[in-house]
Amino acid sequence: MIDQLFGSKTRVKLLKFFFANQDEEFFVRELTRLLDEQINSIRRELINLAEAGVVKSIDKDNKVFYQLNKDGDMYEGLDKILAPKEEASSANAKEVKAGKVVADPTVKAKRGIVVKDAKLNLIKEELSSVPGVTFVLASGVLLKNSPKGVDLLVVGKFGEKEENEIKEKVQIIEKKLNKSLNFASISEESYTYRLKINDRFLMSLLQAKNEILINELGDK
Asked: What is the pLDDT of residue 219?
């Protein structure tokens, strides 16, 4: 029905994408990777959406970025149709007390945590396919923080095979996002122990701006 209304599956993908990531900026090749569409189709639909005032273009770093135009005449109407419906509280709603991560009790999903940011959702999808992964946390450059420290923490029950698969997945993610990432992978046992002793590395990461993408550890 929505495809018929807007006339193009690629256009619908772009509209849903921009309304799910309303404050983000994306360049053309980035959108082709994230939406798995041909670059010519993406470019053509972006021109159409820009002419209609739905998105706006921004010149930055010798690239043209596109962002949802919240000041456009069509914004409010399209927002009612396309914006994702609010789920239970964000998986990022948590606090650190006495060296322990206390998850928001309204967050029931584990691997099913809703991640609205397209880049983070891409990371979640890649890493959730690795056997044994039980916890993934994004921080650092992934959330536009200081580039120092760890951008991605992966926790789970895995051996050498899974460790190598995680490395391969991170390389795929880096290629798709065109971004170099600092990541760390540790066992569940190490994670639990580090929490108990208030490990400086882990606590600084948990207390910094972050978003949990996968959580099968509960409130460990």
From this structure: 57
